[in-house]
Write a structure and sequence with these properties.
single chain; about 290 residues; alpha/beta; D-Maltodextrin-Binding Protein, domain 2; six-stranded mixed sheet; 10 helices; about 30% helix; disordered C terminus
């Protein structure tokens, strides 16, 4: 039986998303992978990189709060893992308490930093007096308040309320109705796909460019001149020296299609360091909703 790591504990949005992801995967219909919770994304992806687990299932970006920095940083640092699939999961946040409380009574609100950010308007409007405390996961926050007598609350999925026998004080408290998180499945090999460029495929890359004017434009020009669509670009500190950044880029098409190979070869000739993060079928929020 294969193993798959996720950001736990039980009751987290990652576990909820993983449940729906696995249920949609035909290859696992008769041989479900063993889910293993990790308390941080860093530990999860490090374990996958060391081949201690077969797969990792981690959040990459949220439609409201943007990139998940820990995931991007680990993708840059690891050597033995590739993105092979993506999954977009709608997120509905709930305000959780151990016992029924008036909103004005709540003194603290615990949750993952992404969840707190997704519910910023609700918190500022209805619980402005509450101190906001960051936890490793929404499930960890729910578990914490389930065993305290304090007037504390957590933000997390309704599943966490059911698992830890606590109250759902308010549902759908996220600022954006169509709030969704993009998860990725990482493993130790590239996805098997056609070598033909397709609008249904996506390639994720990392670039380390010299810290000089025009270095990023040199990267973008090689794709634009070949009419390769770029759907996403993010920057993160390289963590090697101040002022040096790496760029995470998503482009349409399979990495071994001739036109993308031509662009990557042109970048290599310009001494632009390139790392392949994965090439895989892309999905959309509308497909998940339907």
């Amino acid at each position: 039986m294969s193993s798959i790591g996720y950001l736990g504990p039980k009751g987290s949005f990652s576990e909820e998303a993983l449940y729906f992801f696995i249920s949609n995967e035909k290859e696992w219909e008769n041989n479900l992978p063993n889910p293993i919770p990790f308390n941080t994304i860093t530990k999860l992806l490090a374990a996958c990189d060391k081949k201690e687990i077969d797969f990792g299932f981690v959040p990459l970006e949220n439609s409201t709060e943007g990139q998940v920095g820990a995931t991007l940083d680990m993708l840059a640092q690891t050597e033995n893992i590739y993105i092979s699939k993506e999954f977009i999961h709608p997120v509905e946040q709930c305000l959780l308490t151990r016992i029924p409380l008036e909103l004005s009574q709540i003194e603290r609100v615990y949750s993952h930093e992404q969840a707190l950010g997704q519910c910023r308007d609700f918190l500022e409007t209805y619980i402005p007096q509450a101190q906001q405390i960051i936890c490793p996961s929404t499930a960890e926050a729910a578990k914490m308040i389930s065993s305290t007598e304090e007037k504390w609350a957590a933000i997390g999925p309704r599943r966490a309320a059911d698992l830890y026998n606590i109250q759902c004080q308010a549902a759908k408290i996220q600022d954006e109705t169509l709030n969704a998180t993009r998860f990725i499945l990482v493993g130790h090999s590239l996805a098997e796909m056609s070598t033909e460029t397709s609008e249904g495929d996506k390639t994720s890359l990392l670039f380390l460019a010299d810290n000089v004017p025009g270095s990023l434009s040199e990267i973008l020009k090689e794709f634009a001149s070949r009419k390769i669509n770029m759907s996403r670009i993010e920057s993160r500190p390289s963590k090697k020296k101040l002022g040096e950044y790496v760029f995470f880029v998503d482009i349409d098409g399979y990495v071994f299609s001739p036109i993308i190979q031509e662009a990557l070869w042109a970048l290599r000739e310009k001494n632009i360091s390139t790392k392949l993060l994965g090439s895989y079928p892309k999905t959309t929020f509308n497909e998940i909703q339907s």
